[in-house]
Structure prediction request, 838 residues.
Amino acid sequence: MRETALEISDQAESLRKGYQQEGTIPEEFGLPYVPWDDFKLGLENHNPIALGPARTGSESSFGRMFSANQLFGGELKTFVSHITGVIQADGIPVIVSRQAPRLQEIWKERAAYPEPPAFIKGSIEGGWVMTPEIGKEVHIFSDGEIFGWRRIQPRRKPVHRSLSPEVDYSDFKDGDWVVHLDHGIGRYGGLVSRQLAGIEGEYLAVEYADGDYLYVPAPQADRLTRYVGPDHHDPKITRLGSSRWGLTKSRVKEEVIEVAQDLLELYSKRETVQGYAFSPDTAWQQELEASFPYIETEDQLHVLTLVKEDMEKSKPMDRLICGDVGYGKTEIAVRAAFKAVMDGKQVAILVPTTVLAQQHYDTFQERMGGFPVEVRMLSRFRTPRQQSKILSGLVKGSVDIVIGTHRLLSSDVIFHDLGLMIVDEEQRFGVSHKEKIKAKRTDIDVLTLTATPIPRTMYMALTGVRDISRINTPPEERLPVVTHVSPYDPALIQKAIWREMERGGQVFFVHNRVKTIDAMKSHLAKMVPEARIGIAHGQMAEKNLAERMREFTTGKIDVLLSTSIIESGLDIPNANTLIVDRADMFGLAQLYQLRGRVGRGAQRAYAYFFKQRQKSPTVEGRLRLETIAEHTELGAGYSIAMRDLEIRGSGDILGTQQSGYIAAVGFHLYTRLLADAVNRLNKDKTSTRDKRELPFQILRPIVRIDLPLPVGIPEDYIQDRSVRLSLYRRAASILNSEQIEGFRNEFVDRFGPLPETVENLLLQLEIKLLAESAGLESISIQNGQLNLQYTEGKPLPQPWEFDSRVRFGESSVWVPLDLKKDNWDGELISILEGLTSH
Prediction:
């Protein structure tokens, strides 16, 4: 304690002098701590009380009744056998576990004994055996004894945090380039209030050429999307009222039909290729899943179900799992790999770095240690002799799971019966590596894991070439990482390292130049002499790099000074401060991956991204740093990938010609036009093959609702303009009446009783959905009557099927409806439902 107190005193005094020199605090500023001598003197006036477990050799008869329980380390067969023995010996077994329901199922399957033990779902620090002088022995078993892992220590008040539902709709900022489906490319000018025909409403303002403005009614916010082009250059702004935009959109619509046909051919090929259909889960699979030391999130369970369904089909799986760092992608990979091995198939796990290969190897060994599964690692951490032995095992089939870097793609790696390939962080592999992956994936199942998919991967997922699943739910104890971006600041670095060391943590310091990394170590050693600093980079000898990473993992190093070799997958919960030198030189996905190295536990984590003090970063570098500073919320990986798509451009995802079309209408509208074309071609197909639900948004028909009703979200109901905009955009994307009802309940729950204008907004959404289903183009009031206008070419229903008051024209229906009546809305909905059914 004395050494710690004196160390704090030295650090505080150094900081105090630095702040006095800067003029931040006055010269007479007092000591912000109690000196050790004063602290010691104060302690002498009090009697110490020792808090903790009973000391060895306690004479207490009560203490002698307790003894340690047997450890099972995930060997559930042995555990079930032991419990049976306890019951037969007239003991009382009690199992307290977070996996109690699963353990109970395993007991029912495996135990021949009719009397079950007590299963309690919960978490305790450890189990014990109590042997009283009179009575039965009591055996308490915790997760520590059963699975070999300790109880996770919660914070004082664990609170489940869910992200705001409109987080995906909050990407419009004033000045952004946007695309209106009908009017073209302009600049977004914000959410404004305007009065039209005596009715107040909110509108999205868009500025076009020559200073012209278009005011889009807020309920039609889905007509606007953010512009993303093939590169970072500004698009050509549209002139309102000109025919150019209509011609451009028509040209792109025609051209995407060819691309849509290519996509449908791809779908067909995927449907016809025969793969291997894996068997349903085994009892061992259940045991493995029961040994998972955390509670799975709903997203994890949902994605796992999809993966298993894919594996059990005869069609080869090609699924992309997009989830934030630390959200549980690796556990899904573990379970999928185990499922494949249970059917006698081999599994290849491809990772970008040797460091990540080692970490995955340790994880798989730990998770599958209680089962007869042979796991091996193939990387430069292995000697030539070891590699030769592993290669031989792959050919013979004695190696079930192999984890490796691009070494796995070499021609001498031959499998006896490969059934599943898992690719972690696909964006880290080069083009040549990906071509080799494609060559191997023709008839085997492929599972790809990523936090920030690259533009091409995003495109393939958006267009349905690959199935995509997202894990959005953070682990319960996860906190967002506090992110700081600034010019290089030695004083701030010193404070950051001191603060992390004071709370017993460790620091990642990323310096991505091997030539000057030793000089940076000397610089840091002068700054923080008490810190134990270790260097790690890819040019080190394999043995030295492995040893250095082991030292950091075991806490023998305080600061790991490394290149970007730590970027992927490292999981060190005790490291909660990240410092990146020359951060403007890194890609956006790299910055996000680096930040994901910290904040993986319940402690608050900090990330510092420094740029060069003398020189300004490039435009792209500045945008990348701004983006990483803006997106600090949990689960931001997908948003960052979309932003990266915008900064870097969609590039040549489908060749030069397609890039030209993307430049003309923007990436989002291009994919919607493409989706629309695929959807129409799909409907024309006479094949009986399953019609797949496209995983991207198609163009919805335009329905104009022009009723004399005040519609909107009042400012005095929700003050935050950005939240109102996001809610409008969510409302415009609603697809069915169940979503409307859920939206209504959410409004009441979050913001209170609904004002009349919000009720009208929800009513308008319901009318709009029914009008879409009926094939209507607009609903308006004309000459005191309700006019329901059909889209061109749509056949009208027969007049005799409706009320005699309803009149039918060539392309419209007229209804004498009195809007002053209380039940006019019910009558309108009834008529629309009738039109929909006909």
